[in-house]
Amino acid sequence: MEKVMLSMLLSALLGFVLLLVGLFLGVSMVSGREKSSPFECGFDPIGSSRVPFSLRFFLLAVIFVVFDVEIVLLFPVVMVMGGYWMWIGGYLVLSFFLVLLFGGVIHEWREGSLEWES
Rounded to an integer, what distance in angstroms lies between the CA atom of residue 42 and that of residue 59? Predict the structure, then answer.
């Protein structure tokens, strides 16, 4: 029990020391017009830094994140599939999850979010 308390205390102390070191090293001593400018590539900014972008790119990024998380959630299930310890409820949950994801793809396809010609 004493070793556990000592390791917890050392972990908290190490975290606090790293926090203080990060705060100390993160303070910027040099600040000027170039550093506070939105562009740091060597020339003065001409237009606004707030350039509008297509929402299609944002939607594609959201779809990518959703299906990336889906892969992360499916990977442990695929690893267990070969084993004998996956029960019928696990197969039902997996089937429901896959049907839900497939329904999302169909919805995005019908909505036209996956079309890039327009």
Answer: 33
Angle 88-111/55-81 helices, nearest 10 degrees?
160
DSSP code of residue 116:
-
How far apart CA 37 and CA 70 sit, in angstroms, is 39
Using CA atoms of 12, 18, 23, 28 in order, give the dihedral in degrees to the nearest 10.
Answer: -170
* Region 87-99 average pLDDT: 80
- Cβ neighbourhood burial of 49 (10 Å; 0-12, 13-18, 19+): exposed
Predicted TM-score (pTM) of the model is 0.43
State pLDDT tens for residues 20-41.
998 888 876 666 666 666 665 6
